[in-house]
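Progress against Task 2.4 (sequence-to-structure conversion) is shown through the following example record, which the project officer requested during the mid-term review.
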Amino acid sequence: MRQKTVAIINFNTPELTMAAIGSLLKNGGGPFRVVVFDNSDQRPFEGATNVQVFDNTKGQIIDFEKELEKYPERDRSIGCAKGCEFGSVKHMMTVQKLWELLPQGFVLMESDILIKKNIDEFFNEHYSVYGYCQKAQPHNPFNIGRMLPMLCWMNVPMLTREGAKYFDPTRTYGLLPGGRQNRNNWYDTGAVLLEDIMTKRPRLKGYHRDIREFVEHYGSGSWKGNDLAQQMAWLEQHKNLLPTADDNVRLPLRTKVAICAIGRLENRYAVEWVEHYNALGVDKIFIYDNNRVEDGELFADVLQPYIEAGFVEITYFEGLQRDAYEKCYRDHSDEYDWIGFFDFDELVDFANVRMTIPVWIDQYNADVVCLNWQVMTDNGLTHYDPRPMKERFTEGTGEDFGINHHVKSFVRGGLEGVTFCDPHIPTTPELVCMNVLGERIEQKAVQPKVIHSVARLLHFNTKTAEEWATLKMRRLSPCGDEYNREMKAKNVDYFFSINERTAEKEEILGCCATAAHSTEKPDADATGTVAAETKSKPKTQKRKVSKKQK
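C-alpha cells generated for the chain above:
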C-alpha cells in the first residue's frame, strides 16, 4: 500500500481548509500526507507549516486566464461566482494537474467538509476511483452521473495507464470546443471521468460508496462561501469533529532530505548549486571536497556562510566517488528520510512547476527514486560569464538523446548495506526502484524510458567550450601524454555530440586530426561522470524498514 495522500483544493476559505485537515487527522484514521493546492486570490492558505502546499495564488502553476483563452467561444453565461469565472473548470484543471504532481494517487477531499469517521477504505488500489456516484440532483435534467469530488480516491497510475482524464474540454459543459453539443454534460466536475470508467474503458474499475456517513458538508464553501461569520458558525455547530488540545492531534512530521556530492575544481558553480537546493527545501548538503593542494581552491573558500549556518557540511576526501557516497549514506542515513546523490552540474527541476523536494519525494513508496538527465546545450555561447547556469543554458536535448537515458537517484534513509558500485544508482540487491511516474523499474543506471515530465535532472556537463576545455585540461591524467591525447579527442567528440560545431569552438578546444567529429550519440562511457568501477558483489542483506514505511 502506498503512502496515504490526501489532496485539498483551497479557494479563499483557509479557515474551512484548516478545519477539514483537523477533522481528518482526528477522525480519519491515517497517518496521512496532507497536500493543499492553493488557488486562492483573496485569502491564501497560510496555516499548518507541516502541510505541503502547492502555491497557485498568482497562477504560478496553472494560469487559468491563459488556459481559458484557449476557448474563445465558451459560454460566459454560466460563470459560477464573482471573480471566479468557470469555477468547475478551474477545479477540473487543478485535479488534472494533481495527477501530474502526485503520480502515486491520492484521495481528493474538498475543503468544505469535516470528516466524521475513519476513511482508510477509500484508499483502495483495486479501483481506479472509489467514492460516491450521483445522478439525482436539482438542476441535472439529463440525469448525468458524476463522481462527487468531496471525498474520492484517484488511482492515478491506473487512470493514467488507461488514458482517462478528469478534465476533457471536448466534453466539458460550457467550453464549447466543438460547438454547443456538449451542453448536455451538465455536471462536468467528475462526470467525464465517470463516463470514461463506465462506458469507454471497461478494464477500469470504479466503486460506489455513499460518502454521507463519512462527512459533514458545508455546501460549496470552497469557492463561494466567503462569509467568514457564516463559516465559523457552521464550524461551531460541528466543533465535536474538530481537534482540541486534549486530543493531542499532530500534523505529519516534515520529510527531511539531504543532498550528497563529491566535487573538484567547481568553485565557480558551487554557490548557485547550493542556493538551488536550498530553494527546493533541502535540509542539509554534504560535500566531499576532492580538491588537491595544487588546485588552489577549496569549496570552503566560497561556501563559508552556508557552513557557518549549518546548511553545508564539508569533508575533505581523497577517494572514489562511490566511497564518498557510501560514507555519506553510512554516516547520515538514519538522520534523513531521503538522501539525493548528485554532481555540481546537476540540478533537480520540476518542469516549470513550483515544488519542493520534500513535498515531491514523500509520495513514493520505494527505496530509490530515479530522475532522468536532461543534458543542456551550450546555447551557442563560447566563454564563461558569471551568470547562473540556469540562465545561460536554457536549451535542452530531447528525450530521444542517448545519454538522457541515464538516471541519478534519491535513496531512502534507514536501509542496510547500501553500496554504490555505480554513481548513478545504488547497487545493493533487492532495492525497490521507481521512476518519477511511480512506475517500478529495474535497478539500472541506464533506463529504456526517458521521462522529463514531473521531475528531471538538468545536466550542465559541458557548459561552454572554454569551460569544457579548462576543466578537462585541469583534470589531465598522470597516465602519460598518449593517454591524455586520446582522452582529449574523446572529450572533443563528446562536446560536439551535444553542441553545434563551429570554427571558434574548435579553436578554443584545440581540435586536431585525432579529434574527428563523431556523429554517433555518446554512450555510457563518455558522459563526463565518474565511471562505474568493478567491485565484488555485496552480500544480500535483510532490508531495514525505515519508520516512514512501517
